[in-house]
Predict the structure.
Amino acid sequence: MPSAFVYAARRTPFGRFGGALAQHRPDDLAAAVLRDVVAAAPHLDPADVDDVVWGCANQAGEDNRDVGRMAVLLAGLPVSVPATTVNRLCGSSLDAVLIASRAVECGDADVVVTGGVESMTRAPWVLPKPSRAFPAADTVAASTTLGWRLVNERMPAEWTVSLGECNEQLADRLGISRQRQDEYAARSHQLAQAAWDAGFYDELVRPVEALAGAEPLTRDEAVRAGSTPQELAGLTPAFRPDGTITAGNASPLTDGAAAVLIASGTAPVGTPPLARIAGRGVHALDPREFGFAPVEAANRALARAGITWSDVGAVELNEAFAVQSLACVDAWGVDPGIVNTAGGAIALGHPLGASGARLVGTLAHRLRQSGERWGVAAICIGVGQGLAVVLENADATGGAR
C-alpha cells in the first residue's frame, strides 16, 4: 500500500468572535486557504486534485450545501475537482485528513486537499419548523454558534449540559485546580506570542489582506502576549459561581479556515513531503467526558503506528479547555514541554471546523523544524468523541516512499 504524506499546510489567522474576520463569509475563507495550499505545490496541476474533503461543524448558514464544493468553485479550481464536506464537530477537519489519508493509502486517490472552516461570528439563529401551519404559541430562535440546540427530548438531560459544565465535572473528578488551569492558559498565550515573534507561523498563515471586504489581519487575533496566571486568576467563573473555568482558561469563539495537502509519495507535487501519516485513532465515551476522549484516540493511533509515547517528540493537542488539556497530558504521562510549543487554541482560537487541520499543519512544521521523528495531533469533540493522528517526519525516513 502507498503511504500518505502531508506536503503543505496553510491557514488564515484566526479572528475573534465579531472581530476582524466577521465580515468574511466562511466559504470565502475556505476558498482562500484552499487556493493557497494548492499553489504551495509548484508542479501540481489543479485538475489533478482527485478530491477535496472539507470539515465544518455548523453548516446552518453560509456554510451550508457542501461548503467544500463551494470553496472549490470560489477558489477557481477546475469544475472537475469534486468535494465533500464532513461533520465531526470540533474534529471535522482532522477527520477530513484521516479520510484523505485512507483514500491515498488504498489507491483511490493520489492527491487530496483537506481542511475546514468555521465562522462562529456568522453562524445564524434558526427557528424550528412548526408541526402544523399557523401555530398560536411563540417560538424561540436558537443560536447555532456553539453547543446543543433543538435537542431531542429523548436525549438524557445529563448528556446535554453545556460544554463548560462537562469540563467542570472533569475538573472535579480529576482534582485539577483553577491554579493549574490558569497557569496552563497563560503558557499558551506566551508560547503563541513567542512563536509568532520567532517567525514560526510566517509560512503557515496567509494574511487576510488578500481577502476583500474586511480589515487586515496578519496574526491570530486572540493572543494576549502579557497574560499571566495572576491576571487570569482575577476572572469570574463562567459556568458555576464557584467553578474553575473562565473565559481566560478556555478557547475563545473564533473564525478561520485551514487547509492541508495530502498526497502519495509519487504524486506530481514538486515539493518534498513534510510528514507521513503513520497512524490514526478514534474513540468515543460518555458525552459528559468528551474532553478526555483524545486519551484513548491517541493511544490507538500510536499502536497502529507501531510506536509508544516514549518515541514521541512533539504533541499538538487542541485546547478546548485548559482542564481537558491537562487531563489528557496527565493521562498520557508525556513531558508537558513537548505539548503545543507554538501555543494552543486557548491563545490562537478554536474555529471548530478548522482546528484539526491547524493541528496537523502545525505538527508537521514542528517536526521539520525540530528534527524529531514522531508527533501526535489530537482533538476532543463534543458529544463524547476524540480523534488523533500520528505523523512521522519525512526527513527521518529519507522522504517519500
The longest strand covers residues 254-264. DSSP finds ten helices and twelve strands in the chain. The chain has a mean pLDDT of 95. The longest helix spans residues 178-198.
